[in-house]
C-alpha cells in the first residue's frame, strides 16, 4: 500500500501529532510524508518526500498575527504551481492534517482524501464556537477541503470527533509539581511577558520562546529557546501551563493534570473557538495581556481546582479504522 500523509507546518501542534501517527501508518505500507508551511520549531525524525512552501501565517509580537510578514511570506504563484503539479494517483490513501496543497490537488484530480485533524472537527455545527458568525468559517471549509473527516477536540462533540491524540512521550511522563509555571505564548514578545510575569512575585516562570537562541534569566523569569525535550520536562514538572489558544499543548497539559490558562491570539478565530471549548471544561481564558492581566494570573495561581479529563489512548484504533474504511479496495495486505 502507498500512503501519503500531508501535514500543516504552521505551529507545532500538527507536527507533534504526526510524530505519534507516522509510526502507526508505517505499519500498513510505504509511507510518504509531506509538510507545507514555515512556522514550526519541532520536526519529524523521518525524511520528507515533499517539502512545500504552502500557505501559512506568521506569529506577531503583540498577541496576534503579523499581517505584513504573512503577506510577504505568501507565494501564490508557487502555491498554484505546487497544487497543479503534485502527483497523487499513485497513492492508495491520502491523509491530510489541514494541509492545503495536497487537499486542493486531490480536488483537482478528483481523488478522495481523509482529514485527520483538529480543524476538521469544525465541520460539525456541534463543535463549540462563538455565537457570532465569523468569515474564518470559510477557512475551515475551503483551506484544506477533503472528502472524509476524522476530527480531534477536547470532547466528542460529534460521531466523527475523537478526544486528543496524546503523544506516547507525554503519556509516559511522570507528572510532578516543582512549583514553576511553563509558558508558551509565541504571539507575544519576550519583553512583554517578562514585564508582566515578573510582577507576579514568588513564582518561577519558564518561558519557551520562538525568538530566543540561548537560555536567559530576568528575575523570576527564565527564557528558553523552543526545544521539544526541554519543554516536555518543564511541562511534566510544572504547576501549570500559560499558553495560547492552540489545541495540542493545552490538551497535553490537561492530560498531565496541570492547571491551564489560555490567551487566544487576537483575530485568530480558531484559537477563539478552542478557548471557548476549553472554558466549558473549566479552563480560565483571558483575551489580552494588559493592566488587568497580573490580577487574573494571581487568581489562577491561587485556585487549586483540578480539571479532570478522559483522553484514552485510541490512536492506533483510529488509524486502523481509517485505513480499513478509506484505502482503495484491494490495497490492504491480508
Derived from helix and strand composition plus strand pairing, the structural class reads alpha/beta
For the report, how would you describe the main beta sheet? 7 strands, parallel
Q: Approximately how much helix is present in the residues?
A: 25-40%
Number of E-state strands: 13
Number of helices: 12
Secondary-structure element sequence?
EHEEHHEHEHEEHEHEEEHEHEHHH
In order across it, which strands form the biggest sheet?
A: 3-2-1-4-5-6-7
* Outline type: globular
Mean pLDDT reading = 89
Sequence stretches where pLDDT stays below 50 over 5 or more residues: none
Strand fraction band? 15-25%
Radius of gyration: 20 Å
Please report the distance between the alpha carbons of the first and last residues: 11 Å
Would you summarize the structure shown here?
By secondary structure, the chain is an alpha/beta fold.
Structural summary, described in words:
Helix 3 packs across helix 4. The radius of gyration is 20 Å and the shape is globular. The chain is α/β, with parallel strands linked by helices and 334 residues long. It is built from twelve helices and 13 strands. Helices cover 33% and strands 17% of the residues.
SSE order and pairing:
Layout: E1 2-8, H1 13-25, E2 30-36, E3 50-52, H2 67-73, H3 76-85, E4 93-97, H4 100-108, E5 114-117, H5 137-142, E6 148-152, E7 161-162, H6 168-171, E8 181-184, H7 190-197, E9 205-209, E10 216-218, E11 221-225, H8 228-237, E12 240-243, H9 248-255, E13 259-262, H10 269-281, H11 293-302, H12 315-326
Parallel strand pairs: 1-2, 1-4, 2-3, 4-5, 5-6, 6-7, 8-9, 8-12, 9-11, 12-13
Antiparallel strand pairs: 10-11
Helix pairs in contact: 3-4
Amino acid at each position: 500500500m502507498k500512503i501519503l500523509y500531508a501535514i500543516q507546518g504552521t505551529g507545532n501542534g500538527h507536527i507533534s501529532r504526526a510524530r505519534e501517527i507516522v509510526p502507526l501508518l508505517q505499519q500498513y505500507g510505504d509511507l510518504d510524508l509531506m509538510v507545507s508551511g514555515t512556522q514550526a520549531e519541532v520536526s519529524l525524525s523521518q525524511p520528507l518526500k515533499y517539502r512545500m512552501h504552502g500557505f501559512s501565517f506568521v506569529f506577531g509580537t503583540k498577541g496576534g498575527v503579523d499581517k505584513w510578514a504573512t503577506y510577504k511570506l505568501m507565494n501564490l504563484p508557487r502555491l498554484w504551481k505546487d497544487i497543479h503539479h503534485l502527483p497523487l494517483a499513485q497513492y492508495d490513501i491520502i491523509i491530510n492534517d489541514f494541509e492545503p496543497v495536497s487537499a486542493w490537488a486531490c480536488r483537482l484530480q478528483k481523488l478522495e482524501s481523509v482529514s485527520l485533524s483538529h480543524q476538521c472537527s469544525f465541520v460539525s455545527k456541534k463543535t463549540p464556537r462563538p455565537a457570532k458568525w465569523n468569515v474564518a468559517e470559510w477557512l475551515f471549509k475551503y483551506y484544506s477541503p477533503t472528502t472524509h473527516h476524522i476530527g480531534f477536540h477536547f470532547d466528542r462533540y460529534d460521531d466523527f470527533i475523537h478526544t486528543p491524540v496524546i503523544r506516547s512521550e507525554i503519556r509516559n511522563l511522570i507528572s510532578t509539581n516543582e512549583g514553576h509555571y511553563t509558558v508558551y505564548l509565541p504571539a507575544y514578545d519576550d519583553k512583554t511577558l517578562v514585564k508582566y510575569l515578573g510582577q507576579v512575585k514568588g513564582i518561577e516562570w519558564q518561558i519557551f520562546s520562538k525568538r530566543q537562541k540561548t537560555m536567559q534569566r530576568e528575575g523570576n523569569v527564565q527564557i528558553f529557546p523552543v526545544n521539544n525535550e526541554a519543554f516536555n520536562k518543564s511541562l511534566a514538572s510544572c504547576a501549570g501551563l500559560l499558553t495560547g489558544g492552540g489545541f495540542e499543548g493545552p490538551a497535553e497539559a490537561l492530560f498531565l493534570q496541570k492547571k491551564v490558562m489560555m490567551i487566544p491570539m487576537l483575530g485568530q478565530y480558531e484559537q477563539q473557538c478552542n478557548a471557548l471549548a476549553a472554558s466549558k471544561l473549566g479552563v480560565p481564558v483571558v483575551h489580552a495581556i494588559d493592566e488587568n492581566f497580573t490580577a487574573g494570573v494571581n487568581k489562577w495561581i491561587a485556585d487549586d481546582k483540578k480539571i479532570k479529563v478522559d483522553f484514552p489512548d485510541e490512536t492506533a484504533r483510529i488509524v486502523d479504522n481509517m485505513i480499513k474504511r478509506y484505502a482503495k479496495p484491494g490495497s490492504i495486505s491480508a
